[in-house]
Give the backbone structure.
Amino acid sequence: MTSTDVRPQTAAGLTFPPGFVFGAATAAYQIEGAVDVDGRGPSIWDTFSHTPGKTFQGDTGDVAVEHYVRYPQDVALMKDLGLDAYRFSVSWPRVLPAGAGAIEQRGLDFYRRLVDELLGAGIAPWLTLYHWDLPQALQDQGGWTDRDTAYRFAEYAGVVYDALGDRVPHWSTLNEPMCSSLLGYMAGQHAPGHQDPVEASRAVHHLLLGHGLATQVMRDKGADHLGITLNFTPMSPATDSPADVDAARRLDGQQNRMFLVPIATGEYPADVVADLADAGAPLPIEDGDLEVISAPLDWLGVNYYFESTVRGLSEPSGKHPTFIGAERVQDLEPEGPTTTMGWGISPEAFTALLTRISGIAPGLPLFITENGSAWPDEVSADGQVHDPERVDYLLRHLAAMTEAIDAGADVRGYFAWSLLDNYEWARGYAQRFGLVHVDYATQVRTPKDSAGTYADVIRSAKDGV
């Protein structure tokens, strides 16, 4: 912090840099519903969620929270919170039902209406092109294991930018490519539900290639605030033994460095390249790819929820691993309280993470594009939703973020996950992350205590309290 910074303290005792952006985030398949409306084609998540045994209680995103028709109400909730910005994703199969070719204007018209509603409320739209809902037609041709999908993604980016580039200033290519690749093609926990290390390695590289190609397309069309959103999980060894230290290195490599380092430097980490090759799943790099992947960006989105502690094993664990070649790594149960997702709570690791990212990608402004927690929220007898655990989580992580800013991290905004309770992927509707409670039977929205707390922080930051 320089002597010229003005950092008024908020009602929560937090201070933020001038112009700091406060927002909330969602994703298309988690909230929109209307999966067969206005020409939308099927996505891999439609297929996966309708496959018996893949999701909690067979839950699907068919209805979700009906944002496709209730978006004016949801934008009004954002305005009541005092949000500066709203991060949302576009459904690729809603715009290009077959993944390429014929454009569905009715799908684009929905996003035009949403953007107009946001702008009318004084809320800046932050658009994510891909939040996991790959058109099933492209998956039928190999999905992200097929290099051609990267080029189809770039074409899709151009279609959406042509439609919305005049009104949407902030663009992100991918959300959490680690999940799309490793959870989708290695762990089998997410769509398309495969468990193949070679497929996973190919998906990693083609997702990053698609990011770079889409960035080029949008730059050529005049985009000037482009980013990508990565999810980070700090990995700590259980002890200082060589086996534990190597386990943490291996998982940190695939969870964190495999995605950030090539974008920031134009090279994959050498140890990760070696790990994947040793596992028989080398990255399918072609000449010129890394130059494309490392196309200059204007900002980096950081998603953070928890940290992990890992141990190296002398024998395979017997469980199918999330990470390639990690059969001899054990992820330990977190100590202390956990959210209903089973995740630990580590705001201090958030501070360290932001400092670390700033060192790997110096000069790249950071925006916290997701941070939040799931709790067993219920509407009380007084008609309110009291969520003290989420209030505590929110304030502690905001404080951890401001500590990183004070230490020199260039963090310029924070988007809470999530605006609304919604479809939590394979966990179905059992996990509630929202600032706003949704009764799934009636679709009634009720702002939680955490929404009020966040609104107070935003209001006092703007008022200079």
